[in-house]
Amino acid sequence: VFRAQLSYARYWEGITLIERACAVWMNGVSNLFAFCSADPNKAEAVDEFQYLASRLMSLLVCKSMHEVSRRDVAHFPHLDLEGIDQESLDYLSTVSGKAIVVLQWLQ
After folding, report:
1. pTM for this predicted structure
2. pLDDT for 62-71, tens place per residue?
């Protein structure tokens, strides 16, 4: 019984930490969007920036879930990768810490 309780507690602690990390990441992207320029002359550049940030955040969550998952799932869903150059995606496919790389791209 003790082992089952300990396993259950660890499971929920892990879920809580994952949810907290996702919330912090989403808060960061929300702050990025909030401080984007409202200048109509920069609207196109701001849109491109926001689209890229959204795609990178989606990719970060996807790669993070893949790293902590024990399932043999080859693909977690994410937004399309438009705006991310092929050389960067090729590099991402070769490294082991994919979530860290995507996090660095966001920074």
Report:
1. 0.78
2. 888 888 887 6
